[in-house]
UniProtKB/TrEMBL annotation:
Superkingdom: Bacteria
Protein name: Uncharacterized protein
């Protein structure tokens, strides 16, 4: 029985289209192999080109970007939320496309980082009389 290849969104010159999700397809066929091996077989370097966001946060909104070498396209794989149980793949055609995606999604990543910082301040902050003006201001904002 032949399985159909997975698809994923491809961002190219400001527009979206569908492309074969070669990494997911190879992973489905080779789950006994290390993920690095699957990335290499798909033509991607196994170490990230860049990472934006933090996967250790309570709200782990992050992008991990892998680059292809040798001119094969799409040139970039973007993994969205790589620490969750399900990773979403998005492909970017060229470097200007991946930079555009990072720029467009940056505010959401930044909001996640700020939310995490506020949560950590509330969870591990000193007693009320010793709290900094910043912590008191953030508490007022959080209470509305």
């Amino acid at each position: 029985m032949t399985e159909t290849a997975s698809t994923a969104p491809l961002y190219r010159n400001g527009s979206w289209e569908e492309t074969t999700d070669v990494v997911s397809t190879l992973w489905d066929e080779n789950q006994d192999q290390d993920y690095d091996v699957v990335l290499r077989r798909a033509g991607f370097a196994p170490s990230p080109w860049t990472q934006v966001g933090n996967t250790d946060f309570t709200l782990p909104l992050a992008l991990v970007v892998y680059a292809r070498h040798g001119g094969e396209e799409p040139a970039f794989l973007v993994e969205v939320n790589p620490s969750s149980s399900f990773v979403h793949h998005v492909y970017a055609h060229q470097v200007h496309d991946v930079m555009d995606l990072i720029t467009r999604w940056g505010p959401a990543l930044q909001a996640g980082a700020v939310t995490e910082a506020v949560q950590q301040l509330f969870q591990s902050g000193p007693e009320d009389q010793d709290k900094s003006q910043l912590v008191r201001s953030l508490e007022r904002i959080a209470r509305g």
